[in-house]
């Protein structure tokens, strides 16, 4: 496991700015009541130009995280222009009206911070972790490139070659990643989830500088973005700075997002990939309902929750069902096996089962064993004790994630960008407590037939003489980090 400022002159002398702190007078014009709050103290504000601000105070250490989330990813691309969201993420580091290529990163480093960015199907994110006293400085830097990103054509062409090589290393030369790319393309026909986040190589070959500039003008507008700040900060002071720095950026209309609904699947699909590899690999993608609401649940929402619990029952902890049934004992079928339910997102949802055949076992053996594990749940159900363990581990992992400022900012930003309430994690935990064994058994019976299934199989070929097998890459094309 994956998103402008006002005064360019201010940026020109950013290095000379005095250190800022979380105290001081707050302009009255900036004071505002939050539009949403959480039990953890997070507050959401709407800036005057439509940009959203989320602030999570955490005073345990004198540091802060700023994240800028833009609700645009590979699902907003069109045929012939895939990879633009990710390419633009790279170009955001290549300059603005006041900063040259690479200067943004150098200035963040001089402020004592670290930074990076990521692109997924649903969104793009940019982040900096810095001493809390330098927060206003990085707000100015981030706002400048958000509003005034610009670069020479030659800089674009050089970076495009970097992205092509990234695709070669992470997808083309990684058999499992290449298989997952083909599996996604076969699973999704109308949905733009069909496209890889990094883009098809043919589209990268034909990509032009103006393609990225046009994409930037379309989607990088205040009403399509949220600023998330977590750390040793005062919400009203952050709001005042955000209004001063980000709130003055001109608003602009967003393009119309037309629905691209995936048609009903009416039969099993299969894809296979022959590639040099030491081991085969099997991935089963089942179409399932996604989670649309965290209040006033509809039947499909309850099913999505139950499928999430089923994935944890199968492989949510060491020694879970897939481990016990497929990878242990003298008759083991697989070296590894896993389940994952992707129920949140702007596009369609899937339930994935994956496995690596053990020595002497075939991909077909693993496929049958994976489906047999789900069929066993459908037939015999799960115990209350099993669900209690899953729920306890889920609660613990959610709480532990809050130890990290970056984890808090990631949760808040991803909730906003997917249209969920800020406290979606707490609401999800509460809802999971109501998932009963009968609910898990019911979804195991309902969603795992052939008609909603696409199977991908990696067929290993002999490695070239003298070549060493690469370490397997991540399975799904869910996101790309710079």
UniProtKB/TrEMBL annotation:
Q: Which cofactor does it need?
A: Zn(2+)
SUPFAM superfamilies for the chain? LuxS/MPP-like metallohydrolase
- A single GO molecular function, which one? metalloendopeptidase activity
Q: Where is the Peptidase M16 C-terminal domain?
A: 207-393
Q: Which domain of life is it from?
A: Bacteria
Pfam families xref list = Peptidase_M16, Peptidase_M16_C
| Keywords for the protein's UniProt record, in alphabetical order | Signal
What region holds the Peptidase M16 N-terminal domain?
55-197
| Keyword Hydrolase among record annotations | no
Q: Does the keyword Membrane apply?
A: no
Record's InterPro entries?
Metalloenz_LuxS/M16 (IPR011249), MPP/UQCRC_Complex (IPR050361), Pept_M16_N (IPR011765), Pept_M16_Zn_BS (IPR001431), Peptidase_M16_C (IPR007863)
In the record, which residues are listed under signal peptide? 1-18
GO terms in the biological process aspect are: proteolysis
Family per similarity comment = Belongs to the peptidase M16 family.
Which PANTHER family does this chain map to?
Answer: METALLOPROTEASE, MITOCHONDRIAL-PROCESSING PEPTIDASE SUBUNIT ALPHA
The protein's name: Insulinase family protein
Task: Please give the organism.
Answer: Comamonas flocculans
